[in-house]
Amino acid sequence: MTKISEDDFYIGIIGMGDMGKMYARNFSKAGWKCVVCDREENYNTLLEEFKDTSVEVVKNGHLVSRKADFIIYSVEAAFIDKVVAEYGSSTKVGATVSGQTSVKAPERAAFEKHLPKDVHVVSVHSLHGPTVSPEGQPLVLIQHNSPDWVMRKTEQVFDCFRSRYVYLTYEEHDIVTANTQAVTHAAFLSMGTAWNMSQSYPWELDRYVNGIEVVKCNIALRIYANKWHVYAGLAILNPSAHAQVRQFATSATDLFKLMVVGDYESLKQRALEARRAVFGYKDGVEPGANGEKCERTPILLSDTLLDRFSLHQPSSQHCSARNSHLTILTMVDCWHKLGIHPFDHLDVAGTPLFRMWIGVAEYLFRSPERLNLALESAAYDTSHRADDTEFVVATRGWSEVIEHGSFTHYKEKFESTAKFLEPRFEEANRMNKEMLKVIMESGAPKSMKTPPKKLSSLPLVK
User: Fold this and answer.
1) 70-73 and 96-99: which strand pairing?
2) Nearest to 104 by CA among 94, 112, 92, 114
3) Where is the signal peptide (predicted)?
4) pTM score, two decimals?
5) What DSSP line would sit under 383-422, residue for residue?
6) Intra-chain end-to-end CA distance of the chain, in Å
7) Is the pLDDT of residue 271 over 80?
């Protein structure tokens, strides 16, 4: 296929939120002609923001659709049907239409219902936030009702991102994003809510400033520093996500009940079953230690590597290493109960946050000594019991909000905690960028033509 000439080819973006703006700036920098729009009340503001660039700002999606050869709907999943219904009929004959939503089921339905039959569809999804460089990050491409040459054209359009392409179907995308993001977000949303309810900043306590606790605090702050709808749509509109968030709350509750009665043996048995199933580790053996075979390089080689990213310096050099790590035990137990193999999904389309979270879980579960210390702390040490109680209550609260599909309650719950954590967002954002760089140096696949294994499927929850 002949390479597209930037001289007579327009890329259109409908929806100029943070991701839409990131897309426009990257395309413009690469020399593509861009025509963009947002809600009409934002027209003047958007015009001022892009006045010194080659990006053409217009008043509505009809003007974008009539002019652009490649159109990207970058809107919230909850509104995709309404927006495509309004502007889809104006799509230029022969144009390629794409969507950049985090949940593809409603996007697919909107495209099939409202787009003219004489256009092509190739959906996309950059699996990272707007503040992360797209270079090396997974970019999902979904070929739908379009010939191969349209897919090749789409690849040319996105070459300037230097992302690694991941080729999935709509269904596979929603399963992968549920497996890599839904429960990950639920874990950190629950942590933040627990801190809000107890009205305490955990990093100001000596027991939360070292090693993997640093990662947990920084990721939670990173999530709450974003906009609520980024996570709400993925959790509420993705049918695969409901079963996962429900299981996460169930796992947290089941493990906590064993903690309360001090049932160390049952906790250990359940943790070891999950350790074998999720990571493939032999009981009592640490991969890579004492000549033991190690299948892959650990994401986190040392927790001390992360100490410098703490938001607070400990008041003592002898901070207690004891922690139940209920959040991590819950995460791995949840993966086990759902039959999810996180490394398979990491290799396919893992987000930066997912890579960090797997790294934390892997670090705790690799070492029999570290895991056993956490289990002993869970069963016998009550110093974290109040925090763990708040966490379990928070997991059930988030599960109920998502199960009921309430965007209003999701927003209220999210923004209440975000307001509480806001004073530390700026510092956490700086720390996160440095921490992310360290963790991403562990490497990721350069390209991915197809998933390495059959994706774990979950029952769709209506």
Assistant:
1) parallel
2) 112
3) none
4) 0.80
5) TTHHHHHHHHHHHHHHHHHHHHT-HHHHHHHHHHHHHHHG
6) 42
7) yes
